[in-house]
Amino acid sequence: MTAFMPFSFVHCADLHLDSPFEGIHAAAPAIAAVLREATFTAFDRIIDLAIIEAVDFIIVAGDVHDGENRSLRAQLRFRDALRKAGEAGIRCFVAHGNHDPLSGWEAHLLMPAQAERFGGQDVEGFTVQRHGATLAHIYGISYPVKEVNVNLAPGFRRDPEAPFAIGVLHCNVGGDPNYDNYAPCVVEDLAAAGMDYWALGHIHARKIVRDQEPCIVYPGNPQGRSRREMGPRGCYLVRVDSARRITPTFVPTDVVRWFIEDLDIGGLSTWDDLLDELSRVRDEVRAGAEGRAAILRLNLTGRGELHRELARRIDLERDLAEPLREGEPERPDFVWVESVQNRTRPPLDLSQRRLVQDFVGDFLNAAQNLRAQENPGALLREVLSRRPEHRVIAATLMQLADAELLAILNDAEILGVDQLLPEEE
Amino acid sequence: MYLSGFHIDGFGIYHDQGVQDLPPGLVLFVGDNESGKTTLMEFLRTLLFGFPRRAPTRNDYDPWRGGNHGGRLQVVMHDGRPYTIERSGRHPATITQAGGTRMQIEPALHLLGGLDRDTFKHVFAVGLNELQGLGVLSQEGVRGRLLAAGTGLGSASVPEVMKGLDKELANLLAQRGERRINLLLKKLKEIEARIREIQGQAAAYAEGQRQREQLEARVEANRQEAERRRRELGRVERLEQARVPWANRNRAREQAVIVEYARNFPVNGLERLEGLHKEMNAHRQTRQQREGEINRLKEQLGRLTPDEAVLAGQDAIEALAGERAHLAAALNDYPAAKSDLDQAQTEFARKLRELGPAWDVPRLAEVDTSVQVRQRVAEFARQMQAAERRFETARAQELALAEAATEAQNQAEAAAQHLQDLPAPSLNDNQELARRQEAVRRMRTWLHQREVLAERLRSRMSALDEAGARAAALQGQLTKSAATLPGWLGLPWVVLGLGLGGFFLWRRDYLTGGLVAGVGLALAGFFVWVSRRQAAGEGQRRAAIEQELEQVEGNRAGLAAAITELTGQSAAAEAEISRAVQVMDREPPADVTVLEEIAGELEQAAAQLRDWQAREQDQRQAEDHLAQAKARLAKARAETEPANEDFKRLQAEWAGWLTDRGFSDAVRPEGFETVLKAVENARDAARVLDGQSRRVQQMSGYIAAARGRIGQGLTDCGRPPLAAEPGVGDLDALRLALTAALKTSQQQRELTDKLAAATQALDILKSRGQELEREGDDLLRQAGAAEAEDFRRRGEAHQKWRELVKQMETEETALYRMAGAQEALAALEEELSRTDPLDLQGEKERLQARVRELSSLISQDDQEIGDLKGKLKSMEQDEQLSDLLFQQRTVKEQLAGATRRWASLAVCRHLLEEARGVYERERQPQVIREADRFLHTMTHGRYRLLAAVGEDGVHLESNRSLARKEEVVWSAGLADQVYLAIRLGLAREFGRHSEPLPVILDDVLVKFDPARRKNTARVILDFAREQQVLLFSCHPEFVDIVAAVRRDPRHQETAVACFAIADGVINRVSAGPTGVLPRQ
Predict the structure, then answer these.
(1) Which residue of A has its CA nearest to B900?
(2) How far is A260 from chain B (nearest CA, A)?
(3) B711 and B584, same structural domain?
(4) Does B1073 have pLDDT greater than 60?
């Protein structure tokens, strides 16, 4: 029996190349240019990491592109990056996911010689060798179409001769409700396939589902693109030693990092206080971004004297976000304030105000009654559907989750109180 | 408040008209059109609020029948206080209280709770014009009362809020149109369509790649052929180029054979021979120049002789020259130093004189100017200044306190005199005074109460009398019975008809007989019917009279009970008045006027007491002040003397200190520092004098020594001095002589060296001339020439041979370069020897044409490839799809935001609707609830009145269908009923918060149908039970309606009076059994 040869590889997924950032409507040109390049730069960093660490291969576990409408530019950039890895002697194994199924538009570009793409019909296998000796067998399958609702894990079978087996799959393990339930499977399905390492994709938050026998890893996406994708983003550098021990190490690759910060207006009494506090938060975020650029959403929360002014007289974009953005485009470590959200509440206790027997009390009670219903979401949908213009956006409204509808109810309640009690202190 | 009477002195149609004893209930004024009803209402408005501001269309109701413009009103407040309001012309109103006190104050302020004219006009004194519309609800004075309760909204307006929400909702989304969400949806569709279009780029890109590959292959093939053709062309061109050098080389080879004999000529022979000849000529010239130069040097050397004595004294002269600047400065500065010495002596003498005649150098040295002495003097100065300041301060304070004591004494005496001048107060006890004032206040209340009770008693007695009269009248009506037709009157008509009918039948005139008999029977039937109807009418009349009689009797019993109760209350009031009289310790006041006089006296006594007590307090304070001033003066005097003694002791001590040190005792410590400064200045001047003396001595010694050394130098050199004493001029002359001697000695040495060198060079020149002659002979011998001319001919032939050899080498080198190798060169020469130049030219032209053709093809293809690459590159870098995807995301987010905002607004509006429903069901304002009650009665429960939250308007809701009815669809009558109900509701609500005022209605029921008019009469009677109503009408039948309604026991409590107005004359109409005017 020959000795097991240690090796290393990079596991990444969900590149979503050339996908736009959420919520960045009015970025300065310099910022917009950075954001537009961010997904590409993040993938370039993965390739650079692989070259510097002299890994044996790279795995891309689906969703290279953001949609079926993948741009030619994105495809070429991806091909060029793979070519660069190939020129460094590093092979790449690419699976396609729900965002870039094989049925999607493609420019028929030849993949570089060192790059392999998994087909969509059956699980395909490749071997990786060094100096004629086999390091590992890599199995994988791409999505032939966008929606794959079957469990693909049973299609993976390990070759008995394989010294080390890796499965590459874009799937939802355990049915994470925050993501589409494509290729649904459970940990036991994956364990049954006999792989040593599962290189998964689809879930954008990095997660080591299981650390051994087999090691199951979601690397997350290499670049956060919305406020839901906060914090460090990157890939895993996986080392397999001669004893077959697997050590995945997370390496951040994000160019721009997302932050959401809350600021309680409770102790603030003047406009200058608020601007000072917001500047302080921005500078703290800059420090926390470790030299990177950052996108920041600021949520104003709590009750305070400034609520009324914020609700009625202040243009949050013009009066708060824009001053905070001044001078940022010129900085490499910019902190771009994506938006300032007003989630403050009037400086009065609504639960107590509800008890007052007057029109405002009736208004608040009407909202409370709706909330207390057995199915408030359905009732709110019905309220909205009574308006004649509702049909124009009926489809959009139907997609609103109950939680979103309740948030709308809260907004409506605050809106009404602000309108009915304009001078309430 | 109710109007108990009025008198019109002169106002429009009225002159000297008035009525008294108006009841607090309903007062009807009935008269035809233009009889003066509206004028009367204007009179009442004017008395209460004055004439309105002048306006072009205003009618002032000038008294065209005489009398002063105005009149008076008697009113009784709800607490029973009577007032009379008088107004004449545009003068301010006068209000007279029950006791006769008159005040010039507007009734609106004093009696009407601050009500303004406009509100009174639109709520309390309403004509048909003022009744119209709901504008009254928007009036500032009304709106607050209508909306204040129940909303909790402050300044917010629900309709405005809903309007704002609707506006924003409409701006966001519409069923059709270009609102924000509609536009975003449209934009999203456009973006998605463009994305689909752009997907066609794939095929174009693939086709572009294929074309590029084909073109690149074709270009490669053409390049290879072009290369081959170029190589062939190169061979032909090489042959063409090689032919010229090949021919030249052959020709040179032939000519070289001819000049072969001169091959071994010496290298550069001709040049060398010419060089030798030139050098020999130059050598001869140089030798002659050298010999001349030697002779010239020898002559110059013989002319030079240096001064040896000066050269011997060189060291001494140079040493003196080194001191030349120092000596010159010393000689120059010496007179100034002497002058400074004189000045220093003068300055020192002046400083000593400043100190005094007895001062000299030893004494100057003895004076102690140390820091300790200076500190001691400063201490003296500080202590003496402090002591002097203490003394002066104490002295000034003593003088000020003496003045203050005098002032306090004066004030105490004035206060005592003031108190003595003041008369003693009639009452000395504050408590007693307060007790009596309280008794007066109670008395005033009870006197008012007594008058009110008396008025009410009179009113009830009058009503009892009226009720008795009415009961008697009804009894009389009962005893009378109306005449009726007897029932038997029909019988003769039957007999007559049948008789005549039988007669005509007998005459066989059947038609006439039948008709006559029928008529007779009909007449009989008619009489029977009339008789029965009259009997039934009589029964009904008697029943109505009996019912009214019963009501009247009931009223009488009620009035009798009320009179009994009022009598008891009057007795109680009298008892209270008696108790108050005992406390006052006075005779019982005859009326309120006397009581007010007593109150005035008590007020005066209270003022006297307060004044006396204040003066007493002033006197006590002045005496206290005087005692304090005297005590402070004594204390100040005790402090002045020690301060003075302390100051004198310090002065003596200072004089002793000065005397001990030999100074004058006239010096003050502050001036002693000046003396010390003068001593120090004199010491400084002595030091300066000493320094100057030493300096003058040093300079004098140095100058004498220097002059000695210069004299010795002049003697050694054998030179006399320029003046009696040697000086700087002698030194300069010695230095110049030394310089000249040194220069001559140097020149002598240089000429000797040059002469030796010139002699050596001449020897070398002679030797070289011999060498040159030997070299010329050797050169001729090497060329085989006998003499120089022959040598030159042989040299020219040799030059020719060399040129031909060089040409052959050049041409062969060119040929070799073209061939590239020795073998190739041989082949080339062989090919040149066998080819024809004309054939080569033709081949060359063919090859050139092909190469040009191929280059052109390649260039075209390259251009095409470049274009294709550009296109593909452009497609690769095309960010259009990225842009569109970005736009798609952006629009989707904007759409989500706008949709969420729309949903929030829609939900907010729904919540507001819900709250409004609750408000309308459960939280109607009191005014609207009152008005609704009135309207409910007027419309017999058909409608419900609603105020929308925060709105000034009202709605009607059908109690049957619950449908809303807006103001615009109300019938004229219904509208007036709503307006009247609201006025009554407002008047009632005003009354709750301030003085309830009488309501004046001028012909406001004209549009009402009979049923609603009757219902409205019920409402008015109901309202008038608590608030007086003056109703003006041109419809006498309303009197009947009121009378009919008043039969209802519920309305019998309401007192009613009726007046007829005709042509400006007002007459009370005696009341019938129901208390109101019978129909005319």
Answers:
(1) A408
(2) 18
(3) no
(4) no
Look at A11-20, B254-263, B313-322 and tell me which has the smallest mean pLDDT.
Answer: B254-263
Q: State which of B526, B557, B588 marks the end of a domain.
A: B588
Indicate the residue of B181, B881, B908 with minimum beta-carbon distance to A412.
Answer: B908
Say whether pLDDT at B63 is over 90.
Answer: no
Claim to verify: residue B447 and residue B559 sit in the same structural domain: yes
Among B538, B564, B588, the domain boundary falls at B588
**Chain A residues with beta carbon closer than 8 angstroms to that of B156:** 419-422
Q: Give the model's confidence band at B200: pLDDT under 50 very low, under 70 low, under 90 confident, else very high.
A: low
Count the domains in chain B. Answer: 4
In a domain, B322, yes or no: yes
For chain B, the residue count is 1080
Is residue B443 in a domain? Answer: yes
| Percent of chain A residues past pLDDT 70, beyond the cut | 96
pLDDT for position B149: 47
Distance to chain B for A225, nearest Cα, Å = 12
pLDDT value for A350: 81
Residues B579 and B435 grouped into a single domain: yes
Using CB atoms, pick whichever of B152, B181, B902 lies closest to residue A358. Answer: B152
Q: What is the pLDDT of residue A284?
A: 94
> What CATH number is attached to the domain comprising B61?
3.40.50.300
Residues of B in contact with A363 (CB under 8 A): 911-912, 914-915
Helix (H, G, I), strand (E, B) or coil at A160: coil
Average pLDDT in chain B: 83
Look up residue A293 and give its two tokens: 């650029």
**What residue segments make up the domains of chain A, in order of their start?**
7-252, 255-347, 353-425
Specify the DSSP element, H or E, that contains B758.
helix B728-783
CATH architecture of the domain covering A7-252:
4-Layer Sandwich (3.60)
CB of A145 within 8 Å of a chain B CB? The answer is no
The pTM is what? 0.47
- The position carrying tokens 């009919």 is B1044
Out of A14-18, B906-910, B958-962, B975-979, least confident range: B958-962
Evaluate if residue A245 carries a pLDDT over 90.
Answer: yes
The reported pLDDT for the residue numbered B511 is 81
State whether the Cα torsion B556-B561-B565-B571 is positive or negative: positive
Q: Is A79 on the interface with B (CB under 8 A)?
A: no
B495 and B413 both lie in a single domain? no
Nearest chain B CA: its distance from A6 CA (Å): 40
Q: Compute the Cα dihedral for B333, B339, B343, B344 and give only its sign.
A: positive
Please give the residue range of the domain that contains residue B610: 371-421+596-660
C-alpha dist (Å) from residue B828 to A289, B808, B810, B820, B835 = 79, 17, 16, 10, 10
Q: Do B471 and B552 fall into the same domain?
A: yes
Contact criterion met (CB < 8 Å) for A366 and B911? yes
A394 close to B (CB below 8 A): no
Please indicate if any CB of chain A lies within 8 Å of the CB of B155.
yes
How many contacts, defined by CB atoms under 8 Å, are there between A and B?
174
Of chain B, the percentage scoring pLDDT greater than 90 comes to 8
**Same structural domain, B601 and B576:** no
Q: What is the pLDDT of residues B661-693, one digit of tens each?
A: 777 777 788 888 888 888 888 888 888 888 888
Judge whether A217 and A199 are in contact, CB under 8 Å. Answer: yes
User: Which helix H or strand E contains A235, and what residues bound it?
Assistant: strand A234-240
Whole-angstrom CA distances from A351 to A359, A361, A367, A411, A413 are 15, 9, 11, 16, 12
Query: Among A357, A360, A389, whose Cβ lies nearest the Cβ of B173?
Result: A389
Answer whether residue B483 shows pLDDT above 70: no
Same domain for B656 and B672, yes or no, is no
Say if residues B268 and B701 touch (Cβ distance below 8 Å): no
Quick one: B445 and B580 in the same domain?
Answer: yes
**Amino acid identity at B909:** R
C-alpha closest to that of A231 among A285, A170, A278: A285
In a domain, B1028, yes or no: yes
Helix (H) or strand (E) holding A215: strand A215-218
